[in-house]
Design a protein that fits this description.
Layout: H1 10-24, H2 77-89, H3 93-102, H4 116-125
Helix pairs in contact: 2-4
Length: about 130
């Protein structure tokens, strides 16, 4: 025997359980004092009670994205010159000239301000404090 029940909402399910709960309760029996060996009996397979409860999908709320405050660091020509000078003091003039040529300029004052950030990053990778 198969029993299928469909409910329109949670209240209908609660009313069903309240009405039918006593029918599904069993009496508790104290276990015997000594183990008793009983003959094994074969029984018919037990059919399970299946209840179908439709689930209403909940609308998904958008998850707010955490924002991390950031600041944009700007460099002046003087900042770049001081960092480059510190590298020149350590004997890296040839490396600095090569880096200037990669940026398409022959001297630091020719460097466009739009490339100051990238140039500062390169100076930092070479070991300059900027």
């Amino acid at each position: 025997m198969k029993l299928t029940a469909e409910f329109e909402n949670l209240m209908d399910l609660k009313e069903f359980v309240k009405a039918w709960a006593p029918a599904f309760q069993t009496e508790s029996v104290a276990p015997p004092a000594a183990p008793v060996q009983q003959p094994v009996q074969q029984t018919a397979p037990v059919q399970q009670l299946v209840q179908t409860v439709p689930v209403q999908p909940q609308p998904q709320q958008p998850v707010p994205q955490a924002t991390i405050p950031t600041t944009t660091i700007t460099y002046s020509l003087d900042d770049l010159a001081r960092a480059a000078m510190s590298l020149m003091d350590t004997g890296r003039q040839a490396d600095l000239l090569l880096m200037l040529s990669r940026f398409g300029v022959q001297s630091l004052p020719e460097l466009p301000p739009a490339q100051y950030g990238a140039f500062a990053t390169e100076l930092r990778t070479m070991g300059a404090q900027i």
